[in-house]
Amino acid sequence: MIGDVGAVAVKRRALRSRACALLAAVALLAAAPSLPAVPVLSVLPAALSAQQALFDEGNRLYQEGDFAAAAENYRAVVEGGFESAEVYYNLGNAHFRLGDVAHAVLNYERAALLDPANEDVQANLALVNRMLQDRIEPLPRFWVLSVFEWWMALVPRGWLEALVAVCYIVLGSTTVALVLDRSGGRRARALRRIAYAGAVGTAVLGGTLLVREAGWALPEQAIVMAAEARVLSAPSEEGGLTVFTLHEGTRVRIDRRAGEWAEIVLADGKVGWLPLEALEEIQGRPESG
Question: What's 1-131's CATH class?
Answer without folding.
Answer: mainly alpha
